[in-house]
Structures are given as C-alpha cells and as structure tokens.
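Morning!

This is the sequence you dropped in the shared folder:
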Amino acid sequence: MTLAECFRMELGLSCKCGEFGEFQEGVRALLIEKDHQPNWLFKSISHVPKATVDYFFENIWAPDTHPLAHLNAD
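The structure's back. Tokens below.
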C-alpha cells in the first residue's frame, strides 16, 4: 500500500473503533469507574468473528468523498 492509502485506511479504522464501543468500554473501566474490569464483547482474540474484523476494514466513504482523497494517489 502507498502511504496515502495507509492514511486513508487508518482514518477509517479509527472511525470504526469509535463506533464499535470497545474503546468506550476501555475508557469507562480505566478512567471513569477505575475498576480496571472492562466488559469486552469478546473474551479473547480467538472469539472475534471474521465478520467483526471485516467490519473495521469496510470503506466508510466513497473514494471521491474521503476526507483524505486529496492525498497523492499511487
């Protein structure tokens, strides 16, 4: 992948992480309630379905509307 493609992918991954809810659960457990006992959706990596992993790599934007579309193409 080019650097521009990596940046576009990373932005999408970051947005998906915010939508998914695990980040918020980590913040709750560490910073809000400080109980250090997050209630994760999946108890281990082996329990994460492929569809969940695929969700993070789905494009949020069409190529021409991506906020980083202006970065140099290949």
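Headline: The chain is about 50% helix and 0% strand.

More detail when I'm at my desk.
O.
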